[in-house]
Design a protein that fits this description.
four-stranded antiparallel β-sheet, alpha/beta, Aspartate Aminotransferase, domain 2, Aspartate Aminotransferase, domain 1, 2 domains, 14% strand, 38% helix, single chain, seven-stranded mixed β-sheet, 429 residues, globular
Length: 429
């Protein structure tokens, strides 16, 4: 057993770090799951964020309005359902670095990707290809492959999957630049992650957009693992579109309503799209005319009435981010993840290899870890941690993802992960 990890000084140091945290009070705004006589050390915000204490009250408020007002709830009160989604706009825009007209809460992530690709993936025989990263999240790969087939092209020829060129499975910007330069005349769309889900690598969205636009391609981003994790500047990055979920770092609940971004330069463009009546320009929507007139901006991609109960859970989640501020959350994230990294290097380097890039600009909260003894040992460690109250996330074939979320994780949480990993190591040798 590593005596220094279990020494009183290690505990006191972690406690002191937490006491010095200006954002420590936000932890109290979340429900931490119990474990034994204490609470779970939860590092799964990259999969499902914890429940804000305020979520239940806000959802119950809308249930009460439904009970009291029925259909009149669409029109009465400060949270009238007709305009409910508009009340989320500023919070979402702040979160992703966009103008309010550029964002909307709607649908789920994969649905939004498909709807946006209808408009921004317009293949021709000369330019039919989509560029993604090799090992993309399966739903993204399924979506782009099906879009290619829908347009009558062959994914074997038109889906470009860029293989990693760095140790551990990450990608250099030079390799991304090279493939865009080499294949640029064929690429209709670059669809790229903000943060790669398995490796935890963060990407330079503005540079990828610049490279792709210079070669005539459209650019979209899947920000599922970036929103609420990293400060974003989607408008300034000049991306054509983006989509994301709100149930990970944003903490809006399982299957939460997702988000979409369409750059302001497309706000009034006559783009092909799948139309629905909630995307119709709102002042004439209830004229019930046959002609679709899209609302300006991202709202014009809506299809159906917003899901009010799901949106209700998003409201307090966004409010927490507005009060905490992404810049302050990023500062704390760097401290927490840096502390995790230092404990691994100093005490667990013989057990764990960090896959995620060491440069802080190339990562967010998450460190992706491989156990040096291989997959079976990795599963053994993962299960040992889970049984003992440290919940991370396993991703095939051999990665343990540990993501200290700055809104609710602590240095003591991180220390407990390291301590238990040392116990597992010593018990298996």
């Amino acid at each position: 057993m590593s005596s220094s990890l279990h020494a009183v000084d290690a505990e006191l140091d972690a406690v002191a770090r937490d006491a010095d945290d200006p954002l420590r009070s936000f932890r109290e705004e979340f429900l931490i799951p119990p474990h034994g006589d204490g609470h779970l050390h939860y590092f799964c915000g990259n999969s499902l964020g914890l429940q804000p204490r305020a979520a239940r009250e806000v959802i119950e408020l809308e249930l009460d309005r439904w009970a009291r007002l029925a259909v009149e709830g669409h029109f009465r009160g400060d949270t009238a359902w007709m305009t409910y989604h508009e009340g989320l706009r500023d919070g979402i825009a702040m979160l992703v670095g966009a103008k309010p007209i550029e964002v909307v809460a709607m649908n789920t992530l994969s649905v939004n990707l498909h709807l946006l690709m209808v408009s921004f993936y317009r293949p021709t025989h000369a330019r039919p290809a989509i560029l993604i990263e090799a090992g993309a999240f399966p739903s993204d790969r399924h979506a782009v492959e099906s879009q290619i087939r829908f347009h009558g092209f062959d994914p074997a020829q038109c889906l470009i999957e860029l293989a990693p060129d760095e140790p551990g499975g990450t990608l250099s910007m030079q390799t991304i630049a090279d493939v865009i330069e080499r294949e640029g005349n064929r690429i209709a769309l670059v669809l790229w992650p903000g943060v790669q889900y398995r490796t935890g690598q963060a990407f330079d969205l503005a540079e990828i957009t610049r490279l792709a636009h210079a070669r005539g391609a459209m650019v979209g981003f899947d920000l599922a693992h970036a929103v609420g994790n990293l400060p974003l500047a989607l408008h300034d990055a000049d991306a054509d579109f983006a989509a994301w979920c709100h149930y990970k770092y944003v903490n809006a609940g399982p299957g939460a309503v997702a988000g979409a971004f369409v750059h302001a330069r497309h706000a009034h463009a006559d783009l092909p799209r799948f139309a629905g009546w909630w995307g119709h320009e709102k002042t004439s929507r209830f004229a019930m005319g046959p002609q679709f007139v899209p609302a300006p901006g991202a709202e014009g991609w809506q299809l159906s009435n917003p899901p009010i109960l799901a949106m209700a859970a998003l409201r307090p989640a966004l409010g927490i981010f507005q009060r905490a501020g992404m810049s302050r959350l990023r500062e704390k994230s760097l401290r927490l993840t840096g502390y995790l990294e230092s404990l691994i290097h100093e005490h667990l380097a013989d057990v764990l290899h960090i896959v995620t890039p060491a440069e802080t600009v190339r990562r967010g909260c998450q460190l992706s870890l491989r156990v040096r003894e291989g997959r079976d040992a990795g599963r053994s460690l993962f299960e040992f941690l889970s049984e003992n109250g440290v919940l991370g996330d396993w991703r095939e074939p051999d990665v343990i993802r540990i993501s200290p979320a700055p809104l609710y994780n602590t240095h003591l949480d991180v220390l407990r992960f390291a301590q238990l990993t040392a116990v597992w190591r010593d018990s298996t040798r």
